[in-house]
Amino acid sequence: MQQTEITLDWLGMFPDLLHLEPESKGLLAKYARIVEAPVGTIGYREGTPCGAYVLRLAGQSRVYKISSSGREILLYRVGPGETCVLTTTCLLGNSDYPASTIVEEPIRDVIVPAVAFNELMVESSVFRRFVMQNYGALISDLIVLLDEVAFHSLNARLAKLLLEVPGPQITRTHQQLADELGTAREVVSRQLKRFEQQGWVALGRGHIEILDRAALEKLA
C-alpha cells in the first residue's frame, strides 16, 4: 500500500466530523495518513491484529469469511464515505480480525492509528458519536445478512442478488455468485438452470441476462 501526507480536506466526505473540536482536528492532522491500494490487495486477514481505524474516500473492498471447508461468504462491502464495522469492533474490543478483506476497486483510505483512535474516543464527543453511529448502522446491516442466511431460501437470495444489478446484463460467474451467497458453485448453477427453464434468465459464459425481472421480484 502507498501512503501519502495528509491535510484535512477529506473531512468533507464525513460531514459529521467537520464539527470536530480544534484539538481533535490537530490530532488527526498529526497522525492520520492517506493510503492507496490497487485491486487485489489484501487489506487484512482473519486472525491478524487491527492497527488503525479506516475511513474510505474512494473505491470498494469486500469483507468475507472463509469456512473450514474453504467456502467463502460475503459479509459486506465498504465504499466511499463508509467505515469498516469489523475494524471498529476490533479496535473497541482490542481483538484480532475475525474475517478478511480484499480490494475490488482501487481504494483511497484515511487511516487513523489505534493510539490516536483511542485518544479521540476518550477526548472527543464528536468523534465518539460519529464512530458509534456508523458502528450501529453497520451492525444493523449484518443483522439483515444473518436474517437472510438463516430464514430465506437460496432461490430467493439468488433472485435478490441478481436484481441488485440495475441493467439486464450481469457479468458475474456462477462461482462469484456462490461466494457472495456462501454456498457451492454447483448449487448456484442448478438454481440458475431452473430460472432459465422458467424463462426468467438466459445463461451465457461469464454472464447472465435477466429476461423476466418481475418474476424474480416476486420470488425475492
Itemize the secondary structure elements and their pairings:
Layout: E1 2-4, H1 22-31, E2 33-37, E3 42-44, E4 52-66, E5 72-78, H2 85-93, E6 100-113, H3 114-123, H4 125-151, H5 154-163, E7 169-170, H6 174-181, H7 185-197, E8 201-204, E9 207-210, H8 213-219
Antiparallel strand pairs: 1-2, 2-6, 3-6, 4-5, 4-6, 7-9, 8-9
Helix pairs in contact: 3-4, 5-8, 6-7
Radius of gyration (CA) equals: 20 Å
According to CATH, what is the topology of the largest domain? Jelly Rolls
What is the overall shape? elongated
Q: Please, what is the CATH homologous superfamily of the largest domain? A: Jelly Rolls
Nearest-integer average pLDDT: 88
Strand element count: 9
**What is the ordering of alpha helices and beta strands?**
EHEEEEHEHHHEHHEEH
> Strand portion, in percent?
25-35%
CATH class assignment of the largest domain: Mainly Beta
Query: Stretches where pLDDT falls below 50 for ≥5 residues?
Result: none
Helix count from the secondary structure assignment: 8
Distance between the termini: 39 Å
- Looking at the overall shape, the CATH architecture of the largest domain is Sandwich
Structural class category: alpha+beta
Q: In which range does the helix fraction lie? A: 40-55%
Number of domains: 2
- Main pleated sheet: 6 strands, antiparallel
Brief rundown of the structure:
The protein contains eight helices and nine strands. The protein is α+β, with helices and mostly antiparallel strands and 220 residues long. It has two domains: 149 residues, Jelly Rolls; 67 residues, Arc Repressor Mutant, subunit A.
